[in-house]
Amino acid sequence: MITFKQLSKYYPTKQGRRYIFKGVNLSLPMDKSIGVLGPNGAGKSTLIKILGGADYPSKGKVISPLKISWPLGLRGGLQGSMSGRENVRFVARIHGFTNTKLVEEKVSDFAEIGIYFDEPVKTYSSGMRARVAFGLTMAFDFDFDVLLVDELTAVGDTNFKKKSEKVLKNKYENTKVIMVNHSANELKKYCQAGLLIKDQNLHYFDELDHALQEYQSCYVTH
Amino acid sequence: MPNLSEFTHAAPSRNAFKIMCDTVHALLMREVKARFGSSKLGYFWAIAEPIAQAAVLGLLFTLIGRSSLANVPVALFLFTGILPFKLFSKLLPQLSLGIASNKALFAYRQVAPVDPVITRLVIEIATYAIVYLVIMAVLAWLGFDVLPDQLLPFFVANGLLVIISFGLGLALCAAVQQWDDTPKLLSMVLTPMFYVSGVFFAATMIPAQYWYLLTWNPIFHIIELSRDAYFDSYTTPVGDWQYVMLFALGSLFLGLGLYRINRVRFSA
């Protein structure tokens, strides 16, 4: 269960405060994986960031007893000036692992990006970034209850997609996913429920299809 | 395709303090590698820079025929001024950019914006202590009497210097967040600070009616007080513990307050 209590998030802009969420009160049951829907700029990534503790609500709070991952995405999480290996080492250390060698090897094996693993992340293609970012969560057994995935499976080649699909389905039997993806097919593959961002508020749908229909009627112009 | 069943390393359970220590350790390894790992001479320069500076000033004083300043041998006198000032003038720019240059890492909930600031503080203090010890060891080898005469006030003066730098550094982090040009302004302020902080002179060397030009400066007080502690032969006429302590308290309050106000903005 993830509970939003009077959650508001705004960003200060030159035209004043721009609200992304305003007074959201909602409980997500988390018995199913959730696909997050909304047009560009609606606040999908912001929602993922707040859930992952990478950003803070302007007002209100998010309460959950569950173990939630950091936001797995292309933008945050990996620092450009550090190599893939150094990023992995850093993440292992902040999670309290003292022997980082094993973890490095696991991620390296999963990512399969060869010598680029020791090059700065800023030289990576987005597919390579996704491989390292995804490999990171695979490398140790964090026992996350909820995995936050922001557009990560959208990039990458067929092999990587197959691999990550397998991992998401097998390893994370007990882990639910909250996923942002612009492809409805991708969402259907992983998620059963839907969360629609509309009018600075969140709307939960027990069935992903209902959420997709609502999304179609609200946002898609024919 | 690696065997997925191999991926089992249970994460240890930790309390908040342990998490912070682990995070600072991770940042420490990263920063040290970035700063000193890029060139093999990294640590050499940390020691060579203050030595070169003291050598130039020492040469000047020797050329005008001085063998001691305020009853203290020239070399010792200069190092006890240059080193604390170096710590201060390196801490401020380092700390002020600590948050801005680590933003990507705040994606992990374990990393709080203050962690990189603490990390940089630890690195600079450790470097300072090592440089101090190395230089004093060399001077002792050359026959100088390098042991501080009063150890406790010497450490208190340095502790206050660290607190002031930490407070101002955190405040500058907030300033950097608001205004990109803060580092330029900071370096404009720090350069003249060298000349008014008593690095190469002591209060007893200038007429008493001009002391008011310097006594606003807490770094001047700290250098005066630490020389007073270091050398029994020198007694500072202006060094004021109360003023320095109040200044330290004030800057710590300012720094922590601005951090608290800006904590949401830092990670965005």
Give average pLDDT of chain B, whole number.
86
Taken from the alpha-carbon principal axes, the silhouette of chain B is globular
- Tell me the major beta sheet of chain A: 5 strands, mixed
List how many beta strands of chain B DSSP finds.
Answer: 2
What is the beta-strand fraction of chain A?
A: 15-25%
- Helical content of chain B stands at 55-70%
Instruction: Count up the helices of chain A.
Output: 7
Largest sheet of chain B: 2 strands, antiparallel
Order of helices and strands of chain B: HHEEHHHHHH
Which two protein chains have the largest interface (Cβ within 8 Å of the partner's Cβ), and how many residues from each? A-B, 41 and 35 residues
Main sheet: strand order of chain B: 1-2
Low-confidence residue ranges of chain B: 1-10
Output mean pLDDT of chain A.
Answer: 85
The fraction of residues in strands of chain B falls at under 5%
| Separation, N- and C-terminal Cα atoms of chain B | 37 Å
Number of strands of chain A: 8
Output the strand order for the largest sheet of chain A.
Answer: 5-6-3-7-8
Helix/strand/pairing class of chain A, anyone? alpha/beta
Quaternary structure classification: heterodimer
Draw up the topology in text.
The complex is a heterodimer of chains A (222) and B (268).
Chain A: E1 2-13, E2 16-28, E3 34-37, H1 44-52, E4 59-63, H2 84-94, H3 101-111, H4 126-139, E5 146-150, H5 158-170, E6 176-180, H6 184-190, E7 193-198, E8 201-205, H7 208-219
Parallel strand pairs in A: 3-6, 3-7, 5-6
Antiparallel strand pairs in A: 1-2, 1-4, 7-8
Chain B: H1 16-36, H2 42-63, E1 68-69, E2 72-73, H3 74-96, H4 114-141, H5 151-178, H6 182-196, H7 218-230, H8 241-266
Antiparallel strand pairs in B: 1-2
